[in-house]
Amino acid sequence: MHENTKAITDLILKVREKSRQETGNEPAPEMPKPIQWPIQCLVGPGLEGAIACESKVGYVNGAKGWLVYRGYDVFDLCAYSTFEEVSYLLLYGQLPGNSQLKAFKEKMVKYRSIPSTIRLLANFPVATMNTMSALSFGASLMKQELFSQKQDNYRFENGRTISADEDSIPMETRPRGEEHAIYEFNRLDKTKESAEGLYPGADYESSLRLIAGVASVAGAVARLKQGNLPIDSDPNLSHAANLIYMITGKYPTAVQERIMDIALILHADHGINASTFATLVVASTLSDIYFAVGSGIAALNGPLHGGANEQVLHMLKNIGGSDRVDSWYENARAKKEKIMGFGHRVYKAYDPRARILGPLAEYLIKENDDPEVKQLFDVALALEKKVIATLGVEKKIFPNVDFYSGIVYSSLGIPVELFTPIFAVSRVSGWVSRVMEYLEHNRIFRPRAMYSGSFNAEYLPIEKRT
Ligand code: ACO
């Protein structure tokens, strides 16, 4: 291991210890037995508290600030693992052995090369498009690449959807004895490995194509935005190094690669958040996984979700200096503005991802000695202190994953408009893993709204309406 990347591992282990001391070393909470549907739970607006499905992919404990992927503490994965290994873990449920990881990496390298998609994308005015809409568009175009390669048609043909949906029933229960929709690929035996060392099945394959390919789309979008031609992926690079290379056109140092790798691991999965839910909703209609991921990208774009990382950077720049934090904050509070990069639907403790990203930002700033980014970091530290002392005490609002990620990306030479696409590049792993899991027992999503409108409205011709 490179000496400096070892220092980063040590830094994460130190943060892990601090987190364990603060959040307690208690064993994992006793998990309930498999759900017997229907279940009762208290639901708030925005489906807060609603349980939509059972999952083994990942676990978030918002009260303590724990994040677990398939049983593994995210601190350990950041300290010891790689994005490729973590993607394998999320998708297939276990860490890979040597030959499995080798085969997985080879596939990732192969699927990173999507020349027809990039050619098609370059024909559109990407330079003037929103980066996330270009990314979502690129994800859809990836499917065209499959057709152009005359591969199997991935569209689901034989599924039968469940149609037992009546607003009059108080709680929808899963109809018994009916034939349930089965996603075509689930008929394949995923316990057997193909000659290439991976599970067969078109949609595990599509999942892999998406994990690998969306990164190349992000790279191409970055280049086109800057008025440059996209560059080919480099098969000799890791996923993290290749992402930096395709975006910036420069080969990263070992430290830059390692830090991007950690950032990708940290963003890979996070329960049924808004974008994961959007992905699952689309997949549950038996649409296809490319559309589903496109919807995830669209949901992630919002400033209340993944789009917050860009907003944080604008906010920190706008504040202008750590000496201006107090007055800026008092003003924002008076206007009841949301402070970007703080608060979370689930975390009512310090977000473990921010625990890692903050020190990583500091590490990079020391390495780079860039006064502009250093100023942003100083503003961030002062703001964090202020928010924790007020909103932290009053409402348990702490920094979230988006607070320090932008400073990390800036230190890696990544332009602001690429921050949210990079989040998506990583989260594709979680989206597709959860889609594959959900479709094993698919049921179309269909919550209800409480109608509070009127009845018996009389239809008037337009000339009589006031
Ligand atoms: N700044 C100031 N006050 C806040 C913030 C914030 N960042 N977040 C929540 N609050 C306050 C709200 O004003 C509200 O106060 P009230 O009860 O007095 O009205 C209370 O805390 C609850 O806030 P909600 O918005 O209802 O909480 P919810 O769980 O719906 O929202 C969310 C969570 C969207 C993340 C919210 O905290 C927020 O808008 N944060 C800023 C945007 C952000 O950083 N988003 C990224 C989240 S991480 C991610 O998605 C990857």
Task: Using brief descriptors, characterize the structure shown.
single chain; 466 residues; mainly alpha; Citrate Synthase, domain 1; Cytochrome p450-Terp, domain 2; 2 domains; 3-stranded antiparallel sheet; binds acetyl coenzyme *A
Q: Give the number of helices.
A: 17
Overall spatial form: globular
CATH top level of the largest domain is Mainly Alpha
User: What percent of the residues sit in helical stretches (DSSP H or I)?
Assistant: 40-55%
Superfamily (CATH H level) name of the largest domain: Citrate Synthase, domain 1
pLDDT average, as an integer?
Answer: 88
Named CATH architecture of the largest domain: Orthogonal Bundle
Q: Could you describe the largest sheet, including whether it forms a barrel?
A: 3 strands, antiparallel
Distinct compounds present = acetyl coenzyme *A
Q: Kindly state the number of beta strands.
A: 3
Strand order of the largest sheet: 1-2-3
Count of all domains: 2
SSE string? HEEEHHHHHHHHHHHHHHHH
Which stretches are poorly predicted, pLDDT < 50 over at least 5 residues?
A: 150-202
Q: Note the beta-strand portion.
A: under 5%
CATH topology of the largest domain: Citrate Synthase, domain 1
Summing up helix and strand content along with how strands pair, one would put the structural category as mainly alpha
Gyration radius, in Å: 23 Å
CA distance, first residue to last residue: 75 Å
